[in-house]
């Protein structure tokens, strides 16, 4: 009977891998409980493609000429995650800059935000996670686009 459970677990893991691939996800984590002290804890992940970070940085590089600050802007454009005031993603998911399509964005460049104010939403496994401002300041740059995928630690915006 243990062999049958093992076969079912293998089939379940293969199905998770299919879900990962078909939905262009980078990671899934599932805990399946069968009973007391009997469970299956599965993490299925794929290595990020080498070009993925470059694709995420391309919009940032295109937005770099817009700021007029001659000294600080070029350094921030090279690697937004290293910029002072960078807000990074706490999870893997899809970014939404507004609560619903057609509504105003949570914040725009130039807005003053207070600590704890919602900056955007990251959807992860059909759960909408509000991302709060870690500190008060002014939104200097929004690095991600609405509906774009993000990785853990990826820069989302810069607040100074």
From TrEMBL:
SUPFAM superfamilies on file: Single hybrid motif (SSF51230)
Keyword Oxidoreductase tagged: no
Cellular component terms per the entry's GO annotation: acetyl-CoA carboxylase complex
Lineage top rank: taxon: Bacteria
InterPro entries given in the database record: AcCoA_biotinCC, Biotin_BS, Biotin_Carboxyl_Carrier/Decarb, Biotin_lipoyl, Single_hybrid_motif
Associated pathway: Lipid metabolism; fatty acid biosynthesis
Region of interest (Disordered), residue spans: 63-85
Keywords attached to this entry: Biotin, Fatty acid biosynthesis, Fatty acid metabolism, Ligase, Lipid biosynthesis, Lipid metabolism
Molecular function terms from GO: acetyl-CoA carboxylase activity
Composition bias type Low complexity, residue spans: 63-84
Signal peptide stretch: none
Pfam assignment, any one: Biotin_lipoyl
GO biological process: fatty acid biosynthetic process
Residue stretches making up the Lipoyl-binding domain: 84-160
Alphabetical list of Gene3D superfamilies matching this protein: 2.40.50.100
Main function: This protein is a component of the acetyl coenzyme A carboxylase complex; first, biotin carboxylase catalyzes the carboxylation of the carrier protein and then the transcarboxylase transfers the carboxyl group to form malonyl-CoA.
Name of this chain's protein: Biotin carboxyl carrier protein of acetyl-CoA carboxylase
């Amino acid at each position: 009977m243990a062999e049958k459970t093992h076969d079912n677990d293998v089939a379940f893991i293969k199905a998770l891998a299919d879900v990962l691939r078909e939905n262009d996800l980078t990671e899934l984590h599932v805990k399946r409980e069968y009973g007391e002290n009997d469970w299956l804890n599965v993490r299925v992940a794929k290595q990020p493609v080498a070009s993925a970070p470059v694709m995420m940085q391309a919009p940032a590089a295109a937005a770099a000429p817009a700021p007029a600050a001659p000294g600080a802007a070029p350094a921030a454009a090279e690697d937004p995650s290293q910029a002072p005031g960078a807000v990074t993603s706490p999870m893997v998911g899809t970014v939404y800059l507004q609560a619903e399509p057609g509504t105003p964005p949570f914040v725009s460049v130039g807005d003053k935000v207070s600590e704890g104010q919602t900056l955007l939403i990251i959807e992860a496994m059909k759960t909408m996670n509000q991302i709060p401002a870690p500190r008060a300041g002014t939104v200097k740059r929004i690095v991600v686009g609405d509906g774009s995928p993000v990785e853990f630690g990826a820069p989302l915006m810069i607040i100074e």
